[in-house]
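Its record is retained below.
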Amino acid sequence: MAASTSSTPASRRYTYEWYVVLICMLAYVFSFVDRQVLALMIEPIKKDLHLSDTQFSLLQGFAFSLFYAVMGMPLAYLADRFARPRIIATGIALWSLATAACGISQNFVQMFLARLSVEVGEAALSPGTYSMLSDYFPREKLGRAVGIYSLGSFIGGGMALLIVGLPGFLAALLFILTVRDPQRKGLVQDSSGQAKRVSVIDSLRFISDRCERSIRNDLTVGRTEVDMRALSRACPETQGAVPNLLPCEDPFALACDRGR
């Protein structure tokens, strides 16, 4: 009887416990993704909120390191005394909501407060997880469980770019399954009534012609502006007499006609 009792823990499969490990690892992955999103959008955020390099460094470094480290201790204290799944779930909800708040921030103060909330929420995950895993697993399995949970940091750091890019595959799938190719219109037909195929040489010739016209038009506009400035200096009374001048119009004739 004693031998069968002692062999029971070793033969246990711990299916539910490994499920909890995977759930915690998934939460750890999302926490790192939410952390890295800000670093992936440095220039757009700086331009939109008019942030300096110092302000952005406070958002990315100071706001994270200070509150993530400091809030870990009181949250670990709570994890030793209250229901750990509720603490972790509250932290996940807080950092997810705070990450969304970062997206609607209008200035540095709002973004800073949102980033602080992100780190307060993320600080609740690891203390509660380590405490639960130590109760779920025996000592010989605890190291593996903690190691699998810790993989979430590396997976999340690597998936930050993937998650930003992978939704593009969803758009590609929607195009393939739902968007029909409309019938082409305005095609030039040959003698047999079929759409005339355009060769690469014809395409290059068309592009060259358009570029030549564009350059010629730009030169005409520049010459017109120079002529108008010279005319306005020579005849101050014609200043403002020619609004909306077109490139093909003669500035001297227009100035004379409008000045009469």
Notes: The mean pLDDT is 76. The chain has eleven helices and no strands. Residues 200-259 form one domain.
